Amino acid sequence: MRTKETDKSLEPADRDVLDAATDIYDTFFTAETTYNEPVQGSEGQKMAAYVDWYRNLEDSGALTKISHSYIDPKPGTANGFLLKQPLPSKRTAIVVHGAWSHHRNVGPWVMAFYNMGFNVFTPDLRGHGSNIIPEVPLTQQDRNMGIYDSRDLISWIDKIKEITSTDQEIVLHGYSLGASTSLQATLYTGLLPNNALAIVEDCGYADLGASILYEIKQNHPDVDALSVFAQVDTMLYERQAARMADGLSMSDLKDGMLPLLVIHGTNDAGLASSTDIIYKTYGGSPKDRLEVQGAGHAESIAYGFYTYREQIRHLLGQAKVMPCELVFDADPSKELEPFPQFPGRLSAKVTVGRGDTLPTSMTFKIVDDDKTGVSFSGGRTEGTVRISPTGIATLPILSFTKATGRFSIVASVVILRQLGFGQPLQIVVNEICMFSTPTS
Q1: I need a labelling partner for 307 at 20 to 30 A (CA). Which of 136, 236, 390, 432 fits?
Q2: Which of 229, 68, 239 lies closest to 162, judged by CA?
Q3: Shortest CA distance to 177 belongs to which of 96, 236, 296, 288?
Q4: How many angstroms separate the CA atoms of 292 and 41, rounded?
């Protein structure tokens, strides 16, 4: 890359091209920018609570840090973080963050899978989050827009199998850059482990080169876009021994084999065409799509968390991964609103799949999320309750004596799945529902 002193010798038009290319390269292919803004949407408050929940888990030591060493294009180490279920689980979701973000921002997506009984692994892509080296200038730390990150995901799956069990069922989920990185990982024929069973693609791009060209046109409209693109491609090769063509491309999508869910917000105009291309071109089956009205880029989960989660559950059911659930009977739209004041109780419904044994009991615990001291005038704050033959469990929660702050009700059941041989498999299923206390 040229220095500013050398740039002075260029013709003005060439200098404009180089300046634009440097701006695009630094923005997308170095660690210059980090994004920490909360997910916006009609359920934004809930998403912020889920982010806090996940960060608090990490800060309390509940996550297992896993490191992966790589040699291409030069030796380095990438980090990821594993949240395990209370009981051993045979299912793990890999949740991959978007461009400029990091693993500590993915709480809402973690919550969706954790509630469905999955272990959840959240890697930091190269040049993001915990992989940033404080002593090194940010523009000297590389990001690769999925070119190498997608290969890392293959290695992460092998690491997860080592730490949990060799027969783990793996689901890949990503949003924005994470979605495209996950897609590209599933296209490495012969390298992808056969226990990768499905992919959830949320607002990713269909073609890296086309996406970068679009950003050049949007951010530098007065400079020849193709010239800038060629210069960025040269910078990428000189710095990381890669070309834009090494990233995800439309021609690759036909080779997809896993079940796929494509998610898109109607206000995410820049990637509308990518969503159609991914859905129509992707070769795997079954495949489905969820279009979320009013959602912008990476906001779909904040415009209906339960709809988002249940659409994933539907795909996983088709992929024969996830046929059981635990759901509170509270109106999901009322989560984080004041808990009901009527003398009464909160119930939960347990549904099991064919061949599963309905559990006879459910454990629950009330967690004081913000440490403000929630207490009740009746009932218990933790314990075990019986599940009826119809799958209904009633929590003995009555009314408040102290009404401040936010709390969660965490419920858990263990379902036995008959495998046809040996001992039945234990599957733990959780539901976490957050409430605020009533205002005085």
Answers
A1: 390
A2: 68
A3: 96
A4: 11
